[in-house]
From TrEMBL:
It comes from Streptomyces desertarenae. Transmembrane segments: none annotated. It comes from the Bacteria. Its EC number is 3.2.2.-. This is Putative 3-methyladenine DNA glycosylase.
Length: 222
């Protein structure tokens, strides 16, 4: 990958309407640095959540202790814990004070495969290591300790960064309803993915909430 593609995305990239940021994140490189070294992942699937105007968003009813990061500066991580089992990683978008988030649903692991395999031993092949939001967070050792982390810094040792990578041309991007979202937000075509990429997770319509769900349970609501 060319050096120019290794630059961190600037904060103004995220300080835009969430429906612009979400598809533009496809092809970007998420770097997670752990005590075992870095893991790099190419983003292949995301979902947009539009804050106060979106019934599917955690921020729909306003600011709470849980979602406070979504109302802060853009370019930070919002990590939440769901179903008592899984973490999900999101990027805060929009101008400060206007909540918006992009759920990182899936990606292709480019580097750090051994780390990811240790955390995801049930994955049958590499394309399944981060195939779904809970799997992505598990493979990258993401938990609530990373909530609020700035992803726009220049420090190569930072716990989370997003690099420029190679943006995906519009003709290779598909869009459709968000996985697991019900109610008024069920039909918004705010899920974006790289067409035909094997790491993209399958679409699942909304189901009544149950405590025991598959790994993809973390897909609903940001």
């Amino acid at each position: 990958m060319a050096d120019r593609n290794r630059k961190p995305l600037p904060r103004d990239f995220f300080a835009r309407p969430v429906l612009e940021v979400a598809p533009d994140l496809l092809g970007r490189i998420l770097v997670r640095t752990t005590d075992d070294g870095p893991i790099e992942l190419r983003l292949t699937e995301v979902e947009a959540y539009a804050g106060r105007i979106d019934p599917g968003s955690h921020a729909y009813r306003g600011r709470t202790e849980r979602n406070a990061v979504m109302f802060g500066p853009p370019g930070h991580a919002y990590v939440y814990f769901t179903y008592g089992m899984w973490h999900c990683l999101n990027m805060v978008c929009e101008e400060e004070g206007t909540a918006g988030g992009v759920l990182l649903r899936a990606g292709e692991v480019l580097d750090g495969h051994e780390q990811a395999r240790r955390r995801r031993p049930t994955a049958r092949k590499d394309s399944e290591l981060a195939k779904g939001p809970a799997r992505l967070a598990t493979a990258l050792a993401v938990d609530r300790a990373l909530n609020g982390t700035d992803v726009c810094g220049d420090d190569p040792g930072a716990p989370l960064r997003i690099l420029e990578g190679t943006p995906v041309p519009a003709e290779r991007v598909s869009a459709g309803p968000r996985t697991g979202v019900g109610g008024e937000g069920a039909l918004h075509p705010w899920r974006y993915w790289i067409t035909g990429d094997p790491s993209v997770s399958p679409y699942r319509a909304h189901q009544p909430r149950r405590r025991k769900r598959a790994l993809d349970a973390g897909a609903t609501e940001v």
